[in-house]
């Protein structure tokens, strides 16, 4: 199994939208896919139609070692896609974990439980660089960074890259960055274009060629409890995520897929 953290400490940049739709696209390609919702807001869980009442075990229980991965993972409407949902409890986990042994590696040990028969695991991170995101970065083989093309995008990115370096030095030497994905791209907006050019100048091939356009269908889908890829698989946003999934698979080591 390859574990991919989807992180950016800025809120509203498209982490959850990317997590839901890239996970769905990978599942549709036949990869046994797990999505771990590590944001106390639980948007990935809601967006995949997991209502609050059915979240008996959650990523909180996983982190606090109160339940196993098998007990926490729920099937979704999408074949090959399971989710560990998030609950409100998770907002307390940052504090509760402080006094716990091995607090940065709780997610890693929970995911390494041998019962996990997944090919790929995505972790949808909260908008901060706290202990939850740190757990994701310690558990991950690699990181995917959604970046919204706006004025301060690059500044936020350099802070994230510094964190990644610190994690590589202190916690997870093997952590890679599989790519940066430009989100909410608006062709008609000249600033967006300019920022996209700057990001490509700065990061080169690290930036995925597939860009996610601003597309209202992507923002409508979660209120129906469906990935955009199911809600409207023909819309530009869905097509972009299918392209991104293809590009992502091309960047992953071939040997990682179990089946
Ligand atoms: P994050 O998880 O980084 O906070 P979200 O994925 O929740 O970001 O996106 C923030 C908001 O923007 C949500 O309302 C989402 O539906 C919307 N959104 C995300 N990506 C797009 C897009 N490409 N086009 C239009 N709306 C988008
Ligand atoms: Mg989110």
What would your notes on this structure say?
Pfam families: AAA_31. Residues 3-176 form the AAA domain. This is AAA family ATPase. This protein has 259 residues and is α/β, with parallel strands linked by helices. The protein has helices at residues 15-28, 43-47, 59-63, 69-72, 90-97, 106-111, 131-139, 153-170, 190-203, 216-220, 228-231, 236-251; strands at 2-6, 33-37, 74-75, 81-84, 120-124, 142-148, 176-183. The protein has twelve helices and seven strands. It has a seven-stranded mixed β-sheet, sandwiched between helices. Helix 8 (153-170) links the parallel strand 6 (142-148) and strand 7 (176-183). Helix 1 (15-28) crosses helix 12 (236-251). The model has no long low-confidence stretch (mean pLDDT 93). Bound molecules: adenosine-5'-diphosphate and magnesium ion. Magnesium ion is lined by residues 15-16, 39, 43.
Unreliable spans are none
Instruction: Give the CATH level 1 class.
Output: Alpha Beta
Return the string of H and E elements.
EHEHHHEEHHEHEHEHHHH
Distance between the termini: 10 Å
Instruction: Work out the count of structural domains.
Output: 1
How large is the count of helical segments? 12
State which percent range the strand residues make up: 5-15%
Ligands, deduplicated: adenosine-5'-diphosphate, magnesium ion
The total of beta strands comes to 7
Q: Specify the CATH homologous superfamily.
A: P-loop containing nucleotide triphosphate hydrolases
Taking Cα atoms only, what radius of gyration do you get, to the nearest Å?
17 Å
Structural class: alpha/beta
Overall residue-averaged pLDDT value? 93
Domain AAA: 3-176
Organism: Qipengyuania profundimaris
Protein name: AAA family ATPase
InterPro entries: AAA_dom, DNA_Partitioning_ATPase, P-loop_NTPase
